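Ticket #4471: structure output looks truncated?

Reporter: J.K.
Steps to reproduce: submitted the chain below (153 residues) through the standard prediction queue, then opened the result file.
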Amino acid sequence: MNSRQSLSHLCLWEDVQKKIGGLLPVAPDIVTIVLHDAEFLPAIEPGIKIMKPIVDLIRDEESHDLSLASCMLGLIRLAKTISQLPIEDGDNVDFWQHTKAIFNRHFFMMNTKTHSLILFLHLMCQKLAILQAINGCSFKFMVEVALNIAKQW
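Returned output as attached by the reporter:
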């Protein structure tokens, strides 16, 4: 189902047309724009291209019981995906640059020192577990190695 079909389906959905507390979930002028304005969809298409990977990540993350480190890995993959979205003929280059700049700024705001440390320790634990399995090192030794590496970092 494409964007126009999805939005039209939502606007025509019975629950959208029922008032809740005296208000409609979607204002009638919005329904009219979505259903009848030929310029509407092309105007929001760039936003849809940017939002799709974000919505996909949210759907994937919510369907699992993930650690903070796994969530950060998902955000890193998302940042890479968004940075590699192609600018196609007819796309507003200023919009793309602005959107990517906003995403990057907020990504780095979310990527605090705590998040970086958690991600580092998560990856370090994975590497240490592999080393322990290969070399038969004790857990105490592996913790000491991790702490020494963390101090250097």
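Triage note (M.O.): checked the attachment and the full token line is present. The chain has three domains: 1-37, 46-111, 113-153.
Status: closed, working as intended.
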